[in-house]
Amino acid sequence: MSRKCHSEESPFLPLYPSLTQHLKSADLFGALDRVPALGAPAGKRTFQVFNPSTGELLAELPDMGVQETRAAIDKAYVAQEKWAALTARERSDTLWRWHELIVTHTDDLAAILTAEMGKPLAESRSEVLHAAAYLQWYAEEANRIYGETISAPSTDRRMLVIKQPIGVVGTITPWNFPASMVARKISPALAAGCTIVLKPAEQTPLVAGAMFALAAKAGFPDGVVNLVYASEGDAVGRELCGNPKVRKISFTGSTEVGRLLMRQCSDQIKKVSLELGGNAPFIVFDDADVDAAVDGAIQAKFRNAGQTCVSANRLYVQSGVHDEFVAKFVERVRELSVGDGFGEGVAIGPLIDRQALAKIEAHVADAVAKGSAIRCGGQRIGSDGTFFQPTVLTGISSDMKVAREETFGPLAPIIRFEDPDQVVLAANDTIYGLAAYFYASNLQRVWRVAEALEYGMVGINTGRMSSEAAPFGGVKQSGIGREGSRHGLEDYLEMKYLCMGGI
């Protein structure tokens, strides 16, 4: 086994050369080596983090459970009153300092992210800067939490509304965007005056640890931001949902787990924000700019190897442009290079694990068995890793798994359609409602389709729409609440009505 790189005074989190070789900043490494600041874990259990591209061991982390989670909640509960009592400007200044540290350490954070998640380094840098943008946005929004006055029914009364922080927030973040999801979830909560207990995904906990190390350097008081590492989320999730000191849960992940968390929170009527699964349609109408649609489909489908909740999962192309679109799209897909995220010119990294690989293989096999044609790709790359060729299928029918289930991989099934009204019905025929995309030039069609699609977000003539200034979230079984924008701040505030008599 490789020699561990960690200091003697650090009770856990040994880092291995397979990770540290990519880090430029000694001070970030030194801080990361001492996260989290909960003291030594109660037990001696650890879990390991591996690079999905190479299989190399990156780190061993303390495997925390109920006891450590409860300790983190207690710290957050004690710290919350003082954090909320600070002025909005003081909270804003701390968020600004954190933002600046994230930007300064972009290269190292991106390297950590690529090492543990596998995405190409350029995508990792983009994600880190996107995370920083959320911190910047909510540093500004912290100063814009407004109340209101209400016209009273009599002259001896004054009626007004104030907004106060919910309290301690338990957050659980996913593996596919392990930096931006941390920032998108906790920056509005911190701006509002809440404190945080965060459990990052067990596959990708290291970039969260590095970000929290920088949060400590930014000057967040002890107990305001708390990190819990765990190889399994069940015990941590139950404690976050069941502990009465936690007033809200924010989760991004599968719809199945979202349902479970809602049930666990129901006894306390605990508030939840859920960003869950998706099954995004991508529609190309006859009047679309085909070249632009191909560009957008490449972005919407193959970013992060298709492992995004807003990834285009079903590509509907109208008959008049179907053949042209398929030819141009397949040509572009064949040019996408697959490999280690640190490799030069790599466009697509590995799938996160072998379960993800097995799922995409099953979807391809099912489609081919039912009559679909493989236009390119369709195979795993190598026998040991989790790389899969970017794949395009045509001749898709509604009984195939790729038409009904979220693949979460670099697989693009193309469905030919004739009737513009029927394709909207087909696009809406799912329990999910997170994101949808379509390309068209006729203004009447643009408005009609945009309003008819049952999704929380719709990209029109674009394959990428996430922004810190816009509300991110879905309808139906894709979630509850919104993240980003001014609306994301409201989810962490309680409204209180004050009626003052005898004035």
Description of the structure:
Belongs to the aldehyde dehydrogenase family. By secondary structure, the chain is α/β, with parallel strands linked by helices. It folds into two domains: 17-276 and 481-495, 3-Layer(aba) Sandwich (Aldehyde Dehydrogenase, Chain A, domain 1); 280-467, 3-Layer(aba) Sandwich (Aldehyde Dehydrogenase, Chain A, domain 2), CATH 3.40.309.10. Helices cover 40% and strands 20% of the residues. The strands form six sheets. It has a seven-stranded mixed sheet, sandwiched between helices. Strands 7-6-5-8-9-21 form a six-stranded mixed sheet, with helices on both faces. Helix 4 (88-104) crosses helix 8 (206-218). The termini are far apart.
Short summary:
InterPro entries: Ald_DH/histidinol_DH, Ald_DH_C, Ald_DH_CS_GLU, Ald_DH_N, Aldehyde_DH_dom, Aldehyde_DH_Superfamily, Succ_semiAld_DH. By secondary structure, the chain is of the alpha/beta class.
Kindly report the average pLDDT value.
93
Choose one word for the global shape. globular
Enumerate the strands of the largest sheet in spatial order, edge to edge or round the barrel. 12-15-16-11-10-18-19
**How far from one another are the termini?**
75 Å
Name of the CATH homologous superfamily of the largest domain: Aldehyde Dehydrogenase, Chain A, domain 1
At the first level of CATH, what is the class of the largest domain? Answer: Alpha Beta
CATH architecture of the largest domain: 3-Layer(aba) Sandwich
CATH-defined topology of the largest domain: Aldehyde Dehydrogenase, Chain A, domain 1
Q: What portion of the residues fall into strands of 2 or more residues?
A: 15-25%
State the secondary-structure class.
alpha/beta
Q: How many discrete domains?
A: 2
